[in-house]
Specification:
Layout: H1 2-16, E1 26-28, E2 33-35, E3 54-56, E4 64-65, E5 78-80, E6 88-89, E7 102-104, E8 126-128, E9 136-137, E10 150-152, E11 160-161, E12 174-176, E13 184-185, E14 198-200, E15 208-209, E16 222-224, H2 235-239, E17 246-249, E18 255-256, H3 259-269, E19 274-276, E20 284-286, H4 295-352
Parallel strand pairs: 2-3, 3-5, 4-6, 5-7, 7-8, 8-10, 9-11, 10-12, 12-14, 13-15, 14-16, 16-17, 17-19, 18-20
Antiparallel strand pairs: 1-2
């Protein structure tokens, strides 16, 4: 009985892993899972097992990720660092995590990404950077993320995305940029993203888009442009989306419901590979008389009225021109007739002599 009790005690200690974990951490599954969430840690723990594949450091007080913080954790596949106070990730902090597939840095205070941030993350599949303080992206922000498939940049303060910022991400399938401060989309912004299937740009301040900005996106299935500042769109901007089937969301924009907008949407809806999923929810902001009216209810009568107006103006102009021409012809004939009688009068005077 004493031996059995001793073995049971050993088994309990091994299964809990408490002797191999930092204070406040919980190690499970033969030390493959190390949970240090809500442990009031101010820095990454130093005694994490080299066999750990999942390390949860969420909801702590960590402010800096030092350069050598994870050098002994080469087998990590998932690293969770969300809900800390991280403002600095030193260059090369993840350089030894060659098997890392998911990195969650959301809900922190990161304001910039250096080239050294992504060193060693060649095989990373998912990067979460939502709810940080990023203001711009450039060609070196994600330089080494060749295998990334999902990038979440939701709810930052991104105003500028330089050309080729995502150039290395040829395998990226999802890009989430909603709730930032983008005002325009320029050609080259999404170059090389031929595998991209989901592009979420909702909740920005986008007013204008270059005609060829979506041209590289040959695999796109969902484009979300809802709740931006678009008042009109160019037909060719969406026509340049060459994927087999694309769903486009556009509600919540301040549409100027003129006849040109109606023509654009009519043509877009006729393209079989494009689907305007929320077309029936689009409402007008301009002109003031049509504010909050559904676009689908006003567009037909609006264009009929515009067409009638154009026809009336055209008929009026043509009638005026014809009348002027007729009056001119009459005056010409009258002058010619008057000249004829004058000449005859002159001949009569000469015969009197």
């Amino acid at each position: 009985m004493k031996v059995s009790g001793f073995l049971l005690l050993v088994l309990v200690e091994v299964s809990s892993g408490s002797t191999s974990c930092d204070p406040g951490c919980d190690c499970r599954g033969d030390l493959k899972f190390t949970i240090c969430s809500r442990a009031l840690l101010s820095q990454p723990p130093s005694q994490v097992s080299a066999f750990t594949e999942l390390l949860d450091l969420s909801d702590n007080l960590i402010s800096v990720i030092p350069q050598h913080a994870f050098n002994s954790n080469r087998k990590l596949r998932v690293l969770l660092l969300q809900n800390n106070n991280i403002s600095l990730v030193e260059d090369g902090s993840f350089a030894h995590l060659e098997f890392l597939q998911k990195l969650d840095l959301s809900w922190n205070r990161i304001s910039g990404l250096t080239e050294g941030f992504s060193v060693g993350l060649t095989y990373l599949r998912e990067l979460q950077l939502a709810h940080n303080q990023l203001a711009s992206l450039n060609s070196r922000s994600f330089l080494h993320l060749d295998g990334l498939q999902k990038l979440n940049l939701t709810s930052n303060s991104i105003q500028t995305i330089h050309v080729r910022s995502f150039a290395c991400m040829s395998t990226l399938r999802q890009l989430h940029l909603q709730d930032n401060q983008l005002t325009s989309l320029r050609s080259g912004t999404f170059s090389m993203l031929r595998a991209l299937e989901v592009l979420n740009l909702a909740g920005n301040r986008i007013k204008e888009m270059d005609m060829a900005v979506f041209n590289p996106l040959t695999s796109m299935m969902l484009l979300d442009l809802a709740h931006n500042q678009l008042s009109s769109v160019c037909f060719k901007t969406f026509l340049n989306i060459h994927s087999y089937s694309s769903h486009i969301l556009l509600q919540g924009n301040p549409w100027n419901c003129d006849c040109e907008l109606q023509r654009v949407f009519r043509k877009l809806r006729s393209i079989q590979r494009l689907f305007l999923d929320d077309y029936y929810n689009l409402t007008c902001t301009e002109p003031p008389a049509l504010r909050d009216h559904p676009l689908m209810e006003v567009e037909t009568e609006l264009c009929i009225a515009e067409t009638v107006t154009v026809l009336i103006i055209t008929v009026t102009v043509v009638t005026t021109v014809l009348a002027a021409m007729l009056m001119g012809e009459r005056k010409r004939k009258k002058r010619k007739k008057g000249l004829h009688w004058t000449q005859q009068g002159d001949f009569s005077d000469e015969s009197d002599f």
